[in-house]
Amino acid sequence: MNIIKEKYCSSCKMPFNCGDTLEGEKCWCNNFPPIFNPLDITDCLCPSCFTKACSTKIDEFVVTITPETAIGNKASLLPETANIIEGIDYYFEDGNYVFKPWFHLKRGYCCKSDCTHCPY
Predict the structure, then answer these.
(1) Cα(27)–Cα(57) distance, rounded to whole angstroms?
(2) CA–CA dist 102, 80 (Å, integer)
(3) Which regions of the chain does DSSP assign to beta strands (E)?
(4) Bridge partners of 84?
């Protein structure tokens, strides 16, 4: 039986379920890119606040990238994952996925499809 920990978001103060269990299962936040350690900033965050904080850190990183520094950037060196996260990797516009620069940087190369947010 998995016992899920209920926590309170240190930002919005709302209750949420942490995915860490006494049986060793890892929290949902482990699915996010390890771009920063939220505990360096605050205690645990709910999914909404964590997504916003992670997105802010990623946006701060992305503005430092130029086409010359995009290849071999630290995002492309992260472990590959099939999991993409709304607000981090993409957003919706007129019902279509629009991939953000972070998604392209993780891929590590330009696909030559003239993507809106291609950093290459």
Answers:
(1) 20
(2) 13
(3) 4-8, 15-21, 90-93, 96-99
(4) none
Distance from C-alpha of 115 to C-alpha of 96, rounded to nearest angstrom: 13
Q: Is 18 exposed, middle or buried (0-12, 13-18, 19+ CB in 10 A)?
A: middle
Place of tokens 């916003």: 52
pLDDT, tens only, 60-114: 999 999 999 998 888 888 877 778 889 889 999 999 999 999 999 988 899 999 9
Domain boundary assignment for the chain: 4-107
pLDDT digits (tens, 9 = 90+) for 3-13: 667 888 988 99
Sign (positive or negative) of CA dihedral 17, 30, 111, 66: positive
How many residues are present in the chain? 120
Taking the complete model, does pTM exceed 0.70, yes or no? yes
Residue 64, H or E segment: none
Distance, CA of 106 to CA of 16 (rounded, Å): 29
Contact 54, 33 (CB under 8 A): yes
